[in-house]
Design brief:
The protein starts with about 30 loop residues before the first strand and ends in a 20-residue tail after the last strand. It folds into two domains: about 260 residues, Rossmann fold; about 100 residues, Rossmann fold (3-Layer(aba) Sandwich). The chain is an alpha/beta fold and about 400 residues long. The protein is about 35% helix and about 15% strand. The structure holds pyridoxal-5'-phosphate (PLP). Pyridoxal-5'-phosphate binds next to α4, α8 and α12.
Amino acid sequence: MMEHETSPVADSPAFPSSSSARSSLPRPPWFARPAARSWTCAPPPADAHAFHAALPGYTPTALHEPPTLAAELGVARVFVKDESERLGLPAFKALGASWAIHRVLAAASDDRRLCLVTATDGNHGRAVAKMARQLGLRAHVFVPEGVHPAAAAAIAGEGAEVTTVAGSYDAAVRRAADAAGAPDAVLIQDMAWDGYEEVPALIVEGYATLFSEVDAQLAAAGAPSPSLVVVPVGVGSLAQAAVAHYRSRRSVTTAAGEAPAALLSVEPEVAACVLGSLRAGRPTSVETGVTTMAGLNCGTPSTLAWPALRDGLDAAIAIRDADSAAAMRDLADLGVSSGPCGAASLAGARAALTGEGSAGRRAALDIGAASTVVLISTEGAAAATPSEAPQAREDPV
Ligand SMILES: Cc1ncc(COP(=O)(O)O)c(C=O)c1O
């Protein structure tokens, strides 16, 4: 059974607050379930990594170890997985889109006339559009009205038809699902709902490559397996991939006796649907607002991700745009290009591991001075496209 809101109280900060604006503010929205660390699941299929490795232009994205972050977060080592350059795009999303499209086309009897349809806050749609162009296929991408014109233009620049939908990301998903009912259309969506789970499952399989790369890169850096992995969350598919990776490979303890990684999700305060769902103990939609973290501005968790997140995620935290902006600037100063969604990982780690109440949060995550932390920076600064308009929640499909 799930425990709710288990942040033990600490009277004074275990570590000083960061340079972000968090210091003077109350404790961040937080949920912890330390029992998740002993939960196990089946490993994801291994085929996606070999597929990606054979793609033209594939190279593992960088894993940086910026010098000052470990001291700031009160741990031994901090690594940043830098997805600012992934298969020619400034975000990690092409990993999922490329693998899912490859598998969908392999199963299609005649793929030449197919139109790939999707909805997006920016990065996923651009990845689908780019894959379609490379394969000589059409793409139709639906974007919510709050998506920045530059993001829509980047998708159109890949040759896709772009349709702007009045309303939220969830509304755009519903429109895309309707459009994919047309002959020769196929929906390539990075979130699942009842009756639509096959393609999202493939997308999550594709994301596994990112975590396999981290394994190899930590080993090459002489680092232990991570004590904490921090993942930005929209609908939760990337976090689902993290759960599948770390809860299958390091089920209870590793051969070397290392504890399994704690997994922390980070969402904008205005779109914290996974945090809200964990607190409620069931998938819950929230009304989203305006945030610079456009790719995280999602109001409903993926149904496929939900059981994995419920059982395998240790903690969830929510941050504000100012926290992400400060992290983005600090990462840039450290030589890491990170957009608002990508920098959410550092902002979330700061909010969890420093400041008021951090002793309790660190205890829940089992993080101490000897810990190694991996921050997944899911996009580069070039992907930054702030949302412009308030978005009302609607049910996705
Ligand atoms: C840059 C970036 N980071 C993180 C996410 C969150 O991924 P998910 O929706 O799978 O939680 C997205 C989603 O679009 C994204 O574009």
